[in-house]
Amino acid sequence: MTARANVFVTLAPKMAVVFVGFLIAGMGMPVLPIHVSRDLGFGTFVIGLITGSQFCASLMTRLWAGDFADRKGPKKAVVVGLIFAAIAGALYLGSLIFEGRPVLSASILVFGRGILGAGESLVITGSVAWGLATVGPQHSGKVIAWIGTAMFGALAVGAPLGNALFDLQGFAGIAGATIFLPLIMAAMVAPLRPVAGRSTAAASRVSVIKAVLLPGLGSALASLGYGSILTFSTLLFVDRGWQNGWIGVTSFATALVVGRVGLGHVPDRFGGPTTALVFALVEASGLLTMGLASHPGIALIGAGLVGFGYSLVFPGFGIAVVRAAPPENRGMAMGLYSACLDVALALSGPLLGLVGDAAGIPTIFLASGAIVSLSALVALSIMRRSRATA
């Protein structure tokens, strides 16, 4: 068996955990805006606020989740995260009881999305830390890319599945799946061998922050494209009078999976910042294509370009974090790095929602494309700094 195959086999259980953990997010993303708009009667700002609450909660828990994985072991972090996700599903279900009182129902959804955000923070941070501990930092690009592949593969599968559940059972079907799938996965994870928490003293948080700061900025800027697709691509199709808006999310996620499966080795081979530079420009071009599209096929091509571009931006900047962070704090470093993504997603929902309310849904994608292109400048800055210290 080749070294690459060995790495894949070792990472497969962690990828399965992430797949199930994010399948529930994939099912909810394309239908939640419709539920909030059609069933509760709110506009794009409230939709963005409810969606962004998940990412805001992830932001507030990333550092804690990474430290938890470092101290208690990544397996325990994963299990706790799955339990949190099931609790979020119960809150989804509870929100339906108060559907006749839209403000209260939306408030419960905000809380449920927050719990889900904390759970996903533990699942993804614990899984990445678990992967790095078992295959080593020399394969950090593959760990970030392939575990991320499981996440976005779940989004690709979850979009049509969630749409089907929503058509058959409404939002209650999404709530039920969000309760039971994480509990089933937690039972399957239980027999896996854990990795011990750290046995040495933690490095200073200042050193961790320094390792994350610049790559995290690049990731945050690039993640605007991700946020735009998840929150507003369905509404773009509705705004244009096109059918099957969920296909935009699937196109994005499918292209992302293709990029990471086929090119996941590229950041390890050619360098993370160089990879991030090239693929950020591809992502920006996809967002501009979506904003200018006059036909659904063109918009789907744009969504695919966004996914293909974003596929290696996040692992590209992530390699810079892993190589600069203290080894005993890699979980915390990756948690903080992921928090930069959460900052972007937490802010992008309501802020881009305001852009949509003021100038129309297509303008959201034009603005996002301009912002994403700035991450290429961050990648250039990291490359120059690396050459200066070499």
Major sheet summary line: none
Structural class from helices and strands?
mainly alpha
Helix content: over 70%
Q: Count the strands?
A: 0
Characterize the overall form: globular
Element order: H for helix, E for strand: HHHHHHHHHHHHHH
Q: Unreliable stretches, pLDDT < 50, 5 or more residues?
A: none
Number of helices: 14
Indicate the proportion of strand residues: under 5%
> C-alpha Rg, in Å?
19 Å
Structural topology:
Blueprint: H1 3-28, H2 32-39, H3 44-72, H4 74-97, H5 102-135, H6 140-169, H7 171-189, H8 205-240, H9 246-263, H10 266-270, H11 272-292, H12 296-324, H13 330-359, H14 361-389
Overview of the molecule:
The protein is mainly α and 390 residues long. 87% of the residues lie in helices and 0% in strands. The chain has 14 helices and no strands. It has helices at 3-28, 32-39, 44-72, 74-97, 102-135, 140-169, 171-189, 205-240, 246-263, 266-270, 272-292, 296-324, 330-359, 361-389. Helix 8 packs antiparallel against helix 12, helix 9 (246-263) packs across helix 12 (296-324) and helix 11 (272-292) packs antiparallel against helix 14. It is globular and about 55 Å long. The mean pLDDT is 81.
